[in-house]
Amino acid sequence: PEVYAWGSSQYYEYLVMELLGDLVDAPLLTDEGLTLRNLVALAWQMIDALEHVHSHYLVHCDVKPDNLLFSSDPAVGQIKLIDFGLARPYRDAQTLEHFSPSTLSCSIGTRHYTSINVQYHHSPSRRDDMESLAYTIVDLLCDDLPWGDPELPGSEILTMKQSWSGPAICTGYPPVFGEFVDYTRSLAFEETPDYA
């Protein structure tokens, strides 16, 4: 989103950003629903948005439907990625060298969408954002994830993620969706994803 102003006052820090529209899953609530054709178009926009973030040497760390919004102009229908509260660099700002893998004290992000590696408390990289995006796309495709129950503990979600292959999650849908899930899971820590 566009940033128009930022600063601080006596009591607050502020950030003035572009007004955005509906959440990316809003079409699911309409009578028409989200068509496969529209989902594919949205998926490409979401991948482009993530590539843009990664091109600035940041990983988002919380990719999920609630953080993907349409622009305020419905005629444009452009997707914007929001909420950079957990974002972190994946390269050193001076040398541009990729940070080495490390261990976190806890996992970050929303457990239903975080990557398997992040749930194991491994530091996030571009691959983990891509895996979170894959789960987001599957959620929009299937209208839920197999581990989508909000009452499930994180350990059970992790076990379920590990036991479901991409094609199994996307049974009944074009194979490309399941293949995308498996592709994102196969990426190495420092590997540049194929955004095309």
UniProtKB/TrEMBL annotation:
Annotated EC: 2.7.11.1
Recorded superkingdom: Eukaryota
Full protein name: non-specific serine/threonine protein kinase
Leader peptide range in chain numbering: none
Primary enzyme class: transferase
Residues annotated as domain Protein kinase: 1-196
Originating organism: Schizophyllum commune (strain H4-8 / FGSC 9210) (Split gill fungus)
Pfam families (alphabetical): Pkinase
SMART domains: S_TKc
Single Gene Ontology MF annotation: ATP binding
